[in-house]
Design goal:
By secondary structure, the chain is mainly beta. It has four domains: 29-114, Lipocalin (Beta Barrel), CATH 2.40.128.80; 121-206, Cathepsin C, exclusion domain (Lipocalin), CATH 2.40.128.80; 220-315, no CATH class; 319-406, Calycin beta-barrel core domain (Lipocalin, Beta Barrel), CATH 2.40.128. Helices cover 3% and strands 53% of the residues. The chain has two helices and 32 strands. Strands 1-2-3-4-5-6-7-8 form an eight-stranded antiparallel barrel. It has an eight-stranded antiparallel barrel with strand order 9-10-11-12-13-14-15-16.
């Protein structure tokens, strides 16, 4: 079932064009950002001694300018870029073969004044004319994470085009965002891969200090085969597929990052106080607090609140329920049968060939009897209303709105 598709400063990739006759790096200091936006320092000391925040290693500058570094079992291969060799780009590879790209800036240079551009900044605002909200998280090396009312996603890319222009691709290129940056505002027009679903978007740079927003410490969330315990001082315990593993967690505004072993979970708060998102490069997930009602806006409700997770799940569950509303301006009745089967009566015409899927608070519908329509909607926090948008012809036709109220 399809889901929603999920200017200028210096680029994450920085300047282009490797220097052939690069200046020596002996005695210089460099600042870089890791993929998770941790700031690190490299200092190329005498006798090829490398000094870093993580310890000491070695460095070399080979003929023609390429730079090599070795830190424990990890190695780096890169080169100098920029007009005067004030940016260092390359790839770190660890003992397991995992690799990540970095861009480093020489301290005291003009490049340091320019900084890392959009990398490690967050922007929030409207991405549809109906006021739907989106958060864009620009990571180093053109990686873009984003959050909307369906959850937190890690399948985006960003690329500055110069002159204040920026090009974004969300949901592996299913949705394209082109725009301009004007100080703390960014906006333009978005469209689907085929030029459809055009809309205006505008976001504003957001100051979201770490540990702001909801305090998760002491809470346990679960759903399906996943359970997460948020302990003190950023310690986490993750149970997945029957296996238990210790890890860490942190929060940036309303965005949650959990790391357990070699796995990373990126999630965002959704309607109903749950968390939904993706394992990095892996499965989707959706979890609810086991005790209490976590309010992502007011935050910090005590775990011994009188509500229980069982009540929350019953309230949000829709299987077996019947709803009255309108679909594309026509009176409609929806019955959510078991195993994702949907009975729909639209404009007096009944059918049993539909399908439904609920992920967190986001609902997806397939309506073959309505010109092969598809729809998405949001389940309200009280579990009583649904509203959203749909498209005919398998999502390629003109959009229409829909809403429904649960029968009591």
């Amino acid at each position: 079932m399809s889901a929603s598709p999920r200017a200028g400063t210096a680029a994450a990739d920085g300047p282009t064009g490797m220097l052939v006759d690069a200046p020596p790096v002996d005695g210089t200091e460099w600042i870089a950002l890791t993929p998770d936006c941790t700031r690190v320092t490299y200092r190329f000391d005498a006798n090829h001694v490398l000094t870093t925040d993580a310890g000491a290693g070695t460095w070399e500058q080979r003929a023609g300018g390429p730079i090599g570094m070795k830190l424990g079992a990890s190695t780096f291969d890169g080169a100098l870029y920029g007009r005067v060799g004030d940016r260092l780009q390359g790839v770190w590879t660890d003992a397991t073969g995992d690799a990540h790209r970095i861009t480093a800036i020489r301290t005291g240079s003009d490049a340091e004044k320019e900084g890392f551009g959009l990398a490690c900044t967050t922007w929030r605002g409207d991405y549809r004319e109906d006021g739907a909200q989106i958060a864009l998280h620009f990571l180093p090396d053109g990686v873009l994470h984003w959050q909307d009312d369906t959850g937190y996603w890690t399948d985006g890319r960003w690329n500055p085009l110069g002159g204040g222009a920026v090009h974004l691709e969300l949901a592996d290129g299913a949705q394209i965002y082109d725009g301009l940056i004007d100080k703390t505002l960014m906006g333009g027009e978005s469209h689907g891969r085929n030029g459809d679903h055009r809309a205006r978007w505008v976001v504003e740079e957001s100051d979201t200090p770490r540990a702001a927003g909801v305090l998760l410490e002491g809470w346990r969330f679960s759903g399906g085969d996943l359970a997460i315990e948020f302990g003190a001082n950023g310690a986490a315990t993750v149970e997945r597929y029957g296996e238990r593993e210790d890890g860490t967690w942190d929060i940036d505004g309303m965005l949650v990052h959990v790391r357990a072993g070699e796995d990373d979970l990126y999630g965002g708060f959704v309607t109903g106080g749950g968390i939904s998102g993706h394992w990095f490069g892996g499965d989707e997930f959706a979890v609810l607090p086991e005790t209490g009602v976590l309010d992502a806006k007011t935050a910090n409700l005590p775990p011994d609140d009188t509500h229980t997770a069982v009540e929350d799940v019953k309230q949000l569950a829709i299987e077996g329920s019947t709803w009255d509303g309108t679909i594309g301006g026509q009176a409609a009745v929806l019955r959510f049968d078991p195993k994702g089967k949907l009975h729909a009566e639209i404009g007096g015409v009944a059918s049993d060939d539909g399908a439904w899927e609920l992920s967190g608070s986001m609902l997806y519908l397939e309506l073959p009897s309505r010109r092969h329509g598809e729809a998405q909607g949001v389940l309200a926090a009280d579990g009583a209303t649904l509203d959203g948008q749909g498209w005919d012809q398998n999502g390629t036709g003109d959009p229409w709105t829909w809403n429904a109220h649960r029968r009591r």
